[in-house]
Write a structure and sequence with these properties.
- The protein is mainly β.
- Among the domains are: about 30-70 and about 745-900, Sandwich (Jelly Rolls); about 170-310, Galactose-binding domain-like (Jelly Rolls), CATH 2.60.120; about 330-480, Jelly Rolls (Sandwich), CATH 2.60.120.
- It has 4 helices and 63 strands.
- The strands form 14 sheets. Strands 14, 15, 17, 19, 20, 23 and 24 form a 7-stranded antiparallel β-sheet that branches.
- A hairpin with a 4-residue loop joins strand 31 and strand 32.
- The longest helix is centred in the N-terminal third of the chain and has 9 residues, at about 10-20.
- The chain is elongated.
- The two termini are about 50 Å apart.
Length: about 900
């Protein structure tokens, strides 16, 4: 071609034409790759979160390298609980050194709101059904139960109207004695040998009918059976009978069944002697300075070597048995009719003295009927112990009478009175215990300037004794055994250190009250180290009811602290200390509380609150959203603001916020909450999860699977922890177990923010190509759908699905079909391709099921022009643990023009 010369007239026209042609510039194409390492930010507008964060993240959890699919759940019970299908709550009771070690207990409602407790004895992590027979029925409808572990291997259940305690089918007995007859003569205490599981020679005892045919077992609760562990069985034809103490005598149990009998010989094998539950029938029995429930066994013939006995108490109200500490009277006054005067011996009877220098309560010549001894105590009594001073005793036949103050007058305790000081028909003739069945109408009174419970003792014959002589009658020490006060009804239980705490006594209009047991004794709510029925109860803040509480352990500096956090709806308090002498209560917040008590959970993982500060935390849902507290700092768990904004469509239904559920998954270090979102929604339809290590939220959705409605932690015998979750179908599920929602597929959803490739909102850009990279899986029908969305329009854009072309060509019979881009698929070294529909593309499939490469990738020509762009990725799997693990995605884009639509 000849060179153009601008000075050549002949070429002027040609040059002019060229110069008039428009300049054509190459449009620069840019490429960007993104890892899936952002965060779900549902409460921010998607145009503000960029391409690396997510406006939707469903069933995808965070990892150190990005995200991966969650695992599903499997059924614990393949046969649903009949009728009582709404599983509200649950707890795992784990016992040691027993035949049955695991009990999972759930509260379930029927369609009318009737509640029952059912137990499942299957090993943790294994499938097995609940026992057909329930262990408890709630007293009223629509009661929401709360569970807690309790000291000494127990669990406690409260529902606002009832308190129940249970330790499984085998619990430790209180005391065991052998006696020579049914009158419990010459008792020998064998408790230490019989309450442990050791089968050593020094830990057994021989139960021999010929020498000691009777066995007295004392318990802290009413029993319905005892298990006898036999070392050497009885070989003689025999029977074993059982009686319980009914308050005045031993009475035969109903419907006894001797599981120790074989071949007509009782106690010939290890087994359970069971009978009808004695709750309400068996009474406390004063025996050998114990005050416990009593059962008496009698063997008719032969002998057996026993090394352990356990009790089946059944689930029941805690009994508040005596703590074993005698009470000192606050008044000990003797009235002498001859002198018409009272003599005060209150200080005298509190300390021991000697015969040489007697200091005690002097009853010399105590006149029948006219003279009287008044004793007062701070608590109601069931017995009074009289320790006589040496031989300074009454030596004449006389009968004592004991009366209590009923509010109007002193009234006899009646025929249940037992005078343990009587010998040869003479009262005050020896050291002993005066006992009776406590009446129900006893009232406090004020005497001698002191308020308390008063008891009057008189005699029917004048006692011996002359002051100053060797024939005096002196009681050296007087002490009492308290009557047992019934446990009140509370809304929820807590274990704090070694104490069982019961909180929110609404029925007594003391919703801010907390009562607590003795250490390691959930059956004892009396004594100086307990709350003593209001004397030492903890009252939290104003009269507003408590809603929840939990124990929290942490280290601050060089100090270690276990504290108790207590909530009201809009208040938070912190309790420290070990007992009533050093309990200290601190207000933490008067605006942030816990209206959703079932969401309270603790995490012992060292949450990083700030740089170089990591602590255990408590988490719960407040009215303003999830909160976190480490014992010092109260902090919101940000990210879910829209869910707690009543003006948003996704807002929680605040009317049922108290039904929300929450738990901490220690394996994945995730806090889970279930809330009811949407107007008038009452079912817990939204499942949100917080990764406390990475401080990010994501969402779970069971799709067509059974939606879970509750969750709680369990652990197997090796200490591995799992989460069991209740449903609305009577089925309990093991979470994070299996590739599906119990055979329903898991759908994972990822949607990026609405992003601007040029990082400028003033540009219109075109996406030319999309690249997607994922870890390959082997599931044959796995797929990922990709959706392109433009200009913030959730319904606009191009829907595409990617599939591995090799699998299609091999299985569809469509090799070479006109709608398959065979060239693209075969030229790609990793055998990936694109299926186009005959119309403008709406779906595009890519299976990631075949091939040997670790990763699969695909590039799609997009050619989509918009102001802002977004991509949504959906995966559905049902056979692969954790489903799909996307690695990265990227685009090639170009600038089109300035966005001047509104200029």
């Amino acid at each position: 071609m000849p060179k153009l010369n601008s000075t050549d007239p002949k070429q002027e026209d040609s040059l002019s034409v060229l110069q008039k042609q428009p300049d054509v510039q190459n449009i620069k194409q840019n490429n960007i790759m993104f890892a899936f390492d952002g965060a779900w930010l549902p409460s921010k507008d998607p145009t503000l979160i960029g391409p690396t964060n997510f406006q939707k993240l469903i069933n995808m959890r965070y990892t150190d390298g990005g995200i991966e699919g969650v695992t599903g759940y499997t059924k614990v019970n393949t046969t649903p609980i009949s009728n009582y299908v709404n599983i509200k709550n649950g707890i795992h009771l784990q016992t040691e050194n027993r035949t049955q070690k695991n009990y999972v207990v759930v509260q379930a409602h029927d369609s009318s709101g009737n509640g029952r407790l059912y137990q499942n004895q299957t090993d943790i992590g294994s499938q097995g059904d609940f026992e057909t027979t329930h262990i408890h029925s709630d007293s009223s409808t629509n009661l929401i139960g709360r569970f807690s572990k309790a000291p000494s291997g127990n669990i406690v259940y409260c529902n606002g109207e009832e308190v129940k305690i249970w330790g499984g089918n085998e619990s430790t007995v209180g005391s065991v004695f052998t006696t020579t007859d049914s009158s419990e003569t010459l008792p020998i205490d064998i408790t230490e040998r019989i309450i442990n599981s050791r089968n050593n020679s020094d830990q057994r005892f021989t139960y021999d009918q010929s020498t000691r045919p009777n066995l007295t077992i004392l318990t802290t609760r009413a029993a319905k059976g005892f298990k006898f562990y036999i070392h050497s069985g009885n070989g003689s034809a025999s029977s074993l009978t059982c009686r319980y103490w009914d308050g005045t005598q031993y009475t035969a149990v109903s419907n006894p069944n001797d599981g120790t009998s074989s071949g007509g010989a009782a106690l010939s094998q290890t087994g359970v002697f069971s009978f009808d539950d004695t709750v309400g029938n068996v009474k406390l029995h004063h025996f050998e300075e114990r005050y416990l429930f009593a059962y008496q066994f009698e063997l008719s013939a032969g002998s057996a070597v026993i090394y352990e006995i356990t009790a089946d108490y059944g689930i029941q109200t805690p009994t508040n048995v005596w703590d074993g500490i005698f009470r000192t009277p606050i008044q000990a006054q003797v009235y002498t009719a001859a002198d018409t005067a009272w003599e005060d011996f209150s200080l005298h009877v509190g300390e021991a003295s000697t015969v040489g220098i007697p200091v005690g309560c002097i009853l010399d010549g105590f006149v029948a009927t006219n003279d009287r001894l008044i004793l007062m105590f701070e608590e109601k009594m069931s017995a009074i112990k009289m320790i006589m001073l040496g031989n300074l005793i009454n030596k004449i036949g006389s009968t004592a009478t004991l009366k209590y103050w009923d509010g109007d007058t002193f009234t006899s305790v009646g025929s249940t009175f037992n005078d343990g000081t009587s010998e040869n028909s003479a009262t005050f003739a020896k050291t002993g215990l005066i006992s009776w069945n406590p009446p129900n109408d006893e009232e406090k009174t004020t005497l001698f300037g002191t308020s308390g419970y008063a008891y009057e003792i008189t005699v029917d014959t004048t006692l011996t004794g002359t002051k100053g002589s060797t024939e005096e009658v002196v009681i050296d020490i007087i002490s009492g055994v308290p009557a047992i006060q019934d446990i009140k009804t509370y809304k929820f239980p807590i274990q704090y250190k070694t104490k069982l705490m019961l909180a929110c006594y609404n029925e007594g209009n003391e919703g801010n009250r907390v009562d607590y047991s003795e250490d390691n004794a959930p059956d004892i709510f009396n004594g100086e180290n307990s709350s003593v029925d209001g004397y030492q109860s903890i009252y939290v803040g104003g009269t507003e009811s408590l809603t929840a509480g939990a124990q929290l352990y942490n280290r601050f500096g060089s100090n270690l602290f276990s504290s108790l956090i207590l909530f009201k709806v809009k208040e938070l308090y912190l309790l420290t200390g070990d007992g009533p002498l050093d309990y200290r209560l601190f207000p933490v917040s008067t605006t942030i509380g816990c209206p959703a008590p079932h969401t309270l959970a603790t995490a012992e993982v060292g949450f990083e609150l700030s740089e170089d500060v990591a602590r255990n935390v408590a988490m719960w849902v407040s009215n303003s959203g999830p909160m976190m507290f480490d014992g010092a700092t109260l902090k919101p768990m940000a990210g879910l603001e829209d869910y707690f904004d009543p003006n948003e469509s996704v807002s929680v239904n605040f009317d049922v916020l108290d039904t929300a559920q929450g738990w901490f998954d220690n394996t994945y270090k995730e806090y889970n909450i279930l809330i009811a979102t949407g107007e008038n929604q009452t079912t817990l339809n939204t499942w949100l999860v917080y990764d406390i290590v990475r401080k990010k939220w994501f969402k779970k959705d069971t799709g067509t699977g059974d939606p879970v409605q509750s969750g709680f932690s369990v652990s197997d015998d090796n200490g591995d922890q799992y989460i069991y979750a209740g449903s609305l179908t009577g089925t309990l599920y093991q979470l994070e177990n299996g590739p599906s929602w119990s055979d329903s597929p898991i759908t994972n959803v990822i949607q990026t923010g609405d992003f601007f490739p040029s990082k400028s909102e003033w540009d219109i850009t075109r996406i030319r190509y999309l690249k997607f990279v994922s870890r390959r899986i082997t599931e044959s029908n796995a797929y990922v759908n990709m959706y392109y969305l433009s200009n913030t329009d959730d319904d606009g854009g191009l829907n595409v699905t990617f599939r591995d072309i090799t699998s299609i060509l091999a299985n569809s019979g469509n090799e070479g079909s006109s709608f398959i881009d065979v060239t693209t698929s075969l030229s790609n070294s990793s055998n990936e391709g694109v299926i186009w529909s005959s119309q403008p593309a709406q779906t595009l499939d890519l299976s990631i099921s075949s091939g040997l490469n670790r990763l699969t990738r695909t590039t799609l020509a997009m050619n989509q022009t918009a102001w802002c762009h977004s991509f949504k990725f959906e995966f559905t799997t049902s056979e692969t643990e954790k489903g799909v693990e996307p690695i990265m995605w990227g685009i090639i884009w170009e600038h089109v023009r300035r966005d001047d639509e509104d200029l």
